[in-house]
Amino acid sequence: MTNLLLFWVLEGLLLGVWSKETCPRFQKRSLSLGGHVGFDSLPDQLVSKSVSQGFCFNILCVGETGIGKSTLMNTLFNTMFEKEEATHYEPGVRLKPRTYCLKETNVDLKLTVVDTVGFGDQVNKEESYKPIVDYIDAQFENYLQEELKIKRSLHDYHDSRMHVCLYFIAPTGHSLKSLDLVTMKKLDSKVNIIPIVAKADTISKSELHKFKIKVMSELVSNGVQIYQFPTDDEAVAEINGTMNAHLPFAVVGSMEEVKVGNKLVKARQYPWGVVQIENESHCDFVKLREMLIRVNMEDLREQTHARHYELYRRCKLEEMGFKDTDPDSEPFSLQETYEAKRNEFLGELQKKEEGMRQMFVMRVKETETDLKDKEKELHDKFDQLKRMHQEEKKKLEEKRRDLEEEMNAFNRRRVAAQTLQAQSYQTTGQQPVKKDKDRKK
Ligand SMILES: Nc1nc2c(ncn2[C@@H]2O[C@H](COP(=O)(O)OP(=O)(O)OP(=O)(O)O)[C@@H](O)[C@H]2O)c(=O)[nH]1
Ligand SMILES: [Mg+2]
Fold first, then answer.
1. Compositional bias (Basic and acidic residues) at which positions (predicted)?
2. Do 150 and 184 sit in the same domain of this protein?
3. How many angstroms separate the first and last alpha carbons of the chain?
4. Do 68 and 147 reside in the same domain of the chain?
5. CA 86 to ligand 2 center in whole angstroms
6. Protein residues near ligand 2, an ion, with CB under 5 A
7. Per-residue pLDDT tens for 280-291?
8. What does the pLDDT look like over 104-124, one tens digit per residue?
9. Tell me: the pLDDT tens digits for 62-109?
10. Which of 120, 270, 335, 387 could form a disulfide with 64 if both were Cys (CB 3.0 to 4.6 A apart)?
11. For residue 1, is it within any domain?
């Protein structure tokens, strides 16, 4: 029956009777329910599940030592996280993560704040961005490794990927430092960057206005992509659109409470007046808190996963040789990729093996020739020594012969002398007197 229906549909498509829109197989029919079924509770189910699981949010604070990173974090979450100060004598940039469990009403938030200790303190700042890039990549890699596991547990995995980077710009009133531009350029494809002008109470209103414009134009001219608050969701399109125009936010941080009128407010007190942190005419702190926490926290998490992590994952898998399509743009499955990689690997292995065999044969030949040369050398040496030895022997032989002849001649002379002496004693009738001395001789 199904086959018959399929044949009928296919025939209709081939004959051009139906387009994809009019074909019954592709058409969706809207039906009204006879009564309440209950799937309208699906959003509530999602909310309840998410709330029970809890949320996590990871903030990377990049900025020079003492620029006000910790104070701003404390002010943003209205919590005293830490008071520890970094020294200006760090040999390099070091990333320091700290995780806190926070609860607001019934929502649990696992917040991780990562600090860049020693940023901007070295004489040579060329490599300052590297530890930050490496840290972000390491968090992506951890997540990828978890995803690639056969037995995954992503639901209770502590996601340490950086959801946002608050980039603290010094309120110089001039322009961005090259360290800022280089670092932001290196980070913009890896994390959502929100630039902020720190300690905005130390710069005048008109200077701040000009500085903000300058910073934005420098970011644009250097092709630095900062995070744009999304405007595709109608509910937040207007506020996000307006806030995009306020970037970079000029912020002031403080946990000090000052009485203004009859209210205690967070502020910084100076001899000439009070800077109220949450007063929008004093600074953009509220704008930052609204955008970062109240409106776009979920979008930042989503962008991290869908854009930045996706890019990392794609590059990493491509690097490993995985691809979705073959050279003819035909789908290429994981199995095929695995087979192709396996064959490629085996081919390479064979090639290497062959190469090694040839090298081994060559080495053996070389060693053989070397040994032969050495053998010949030894033979030559031996022959030479033999010749020398024979010559020496010959010489000694000649010397021995000479000495023998000399000895024979001496003996003959001695015998003749003795005979002569005996004859002379016989004629004179004397007895030979042998003195001890002569005998010895
Ligand atoms: N004028 C002004 N001073 C601030 C502001 N925020 C922080 N400070 C002061 O700046 C000093 C350093 O602030 P921290 O928050 O410790 O700065 P940090 O960037 O965390 O410093 P390290 O962690 O040591 O690198 C402190 O004396 C703060 O009171 C601000 O918005 N305006
Ligand atoms: Mg700090």
1. 375-403
2. yes
3. 145
4. yes
5. 6
6. 69-70
7. 999 999 999 999
8. 999 999 999 999 999 988 888
9. 999 999 999 999 999 999 997 778 888 888 899 999 999 999 999 999
10. 120
11. no
56 and 87 belong to one structural domain: yes
- Domain limits for position 359: 339-405
> Helix 310-319 and helix 129-148: axis angle, to 10°?
80
Check the CA dihedral 128-131-133-136 and report its sign: negative
- Same domain for 122 and 177? yes
In the sheet with 257-260, reading across from the earlier edge strand, the strands are: 257-260, 263-270, 273-276
Q: Which helix (H) or strand (E) holds 200?
A: none
Q: Does residue 414 fall inside a structural domain?
A: no
Using CA atoms, how far apart are residues 300 and 306, in angstroms rounded to an integer? 10
Strand partners, 264: 259
Reading the block at residue 46, the tokens are 């999602």
Taken in order 426, 430, 435, 438, the sign of the CA dihedral is negative
Nearest to 241 by CA among 177, 172, 291: 291
The best mutation among 71, 278, 279, 289 to test binding of ligand 1, ranked by most ligand atoms within 8 Å of the C-beta, falls on 71
Q: Is 388 found in the same domain as 279?
A: no
β-strand pairing of 94-104 with 107-117: antiparallel
Scan for tokens 């936010």, then name that residue.
249
Q: Which residues of 182-194 are buried (b: 16+ CB within 10 A; e: fewer)?
A: bbbbbbbebbbbb
Q: Which of 258, 289, 320 corresponds to the end of one domain?
A: 320
What predicted TM-score, i.e. pTM, was given to this entire model?
Answer: 0.74
In a domain, 419, yes or no: no
pLDDT at 376: 95
Residue closest via CA to ligand 1's atom 12 equals: 66
pLDDT of residue 1: 46
Name the burial class of residue 125, with classes exposed (0-12), middle (13-18) and buried (19+) by CB atoms within 10 angstroms of its CB: middle
| Cβ contact 38:22 at 8 Å | no
**What residue owns the CA closest to ligand 1's atom 1?**
199
